[in-house]
Design a protein that fits this description.
Distance between the termini: 29 Å
Order of helices and strands: EEEEEEEEEEEEEEEEEEE
Structural class: mainly beta
CATH class: Mainly Beta
Strand content: over 45%
Number of domains: 1
Radius of gyration: 16 Å
CATH topology: Neuraminidase
Number of strands: 19
């Protein structure tokens, strides 16, 4: 399998090869990308999905930029984090304008609001479909990292201390660890997925976003 890094860089989307010595960087031939925030990939159908804050939409295309289409355009204010459930074939996203976490099928049908209470500035979101959890960051007045079941139930706060602007999230499925970048403290931190063991991984990171 080809190892790739997908990057949303505001006005373009990039596909970066991790298999080549020079890390070949290809800009996808897509139009009208104004403020891309987050990106994710569906390995089964080969679509990439991304949020665009200025267009106020969620879009998708294939890895070569073909097949571009809008997935969600209505009742969306400031779409931010996005995550593909490649098992159940659902798409999750956060909206910092409506302060909601929503889900839809990958084609934009059967849309549902999962969480709409006690959210201030929901940002990144990641999924663990095999276990049945979603994780997200919130960098509101009381910044925190939370977890809930994929249907929005069983919601708990994992981390709510020593946070500034918790931003990007990444899951290590094999080790059951969750990593996040903090754009205020300029740190990358990690804990296990229950956050019983919590420690700083890196610090003094420049320009996290």
């Amino acid at each position: 399998a080809t190892a790739l890094l997908l990057l949303a860089r505001r006005t373009d989307l990039r596909r970066i090869s991790l298999d080549t010595p020079d890390f070949t960087d290809i800009v996808l031939p897509l139009e009208d990308i104004r403020h891309a925030i987050a990106i994710d990939f569906d390995p089964l159908e080969g679509y990439i999905y991304w949020t665009d804050d200025e267009v106020r939409a969620i879009r998708r295309s294939f890895l070569d930029g073909s097949g571009s289409q809008f997935v969600v355009t209505a009742q969306i204010a400031h779409p931010d984090g996005i995550a593909v459930d490649w098992v159940a074939r659902n798409l999750y996203w956060t909206d910092t304008g409506t302060d909601r976490i929503e889900v839809t099928r990958l084609n934009g049908t059967m849309r549902k609001i999962l969480i709409s209470e006690d959210l201030e500035e929901p940002r990144a979101i990641v999924l663990d479909p095999m276990v049945g959890y979603m994780y997200w960051t919130d960098w509101g007045e009381i910044p925190k990292i939370e977890r809930a079941a994929l249907d929005g139930s069983d919601r708990i706060v994992l981390v709510n201390t020593s946070l500034g602007w918790p931003n990007g999230l990444a899951l290590d499925y094999a080790e059951s660890k969750i990593y996040w970048g903090d754009a205020k403290t300029d740190k990358i931190e990690v804990c296990n997925c229950t956050c019983i063991f919590y420690f700083m991984k890196l610090w003094n990171v420049v320009a996290l976003f």
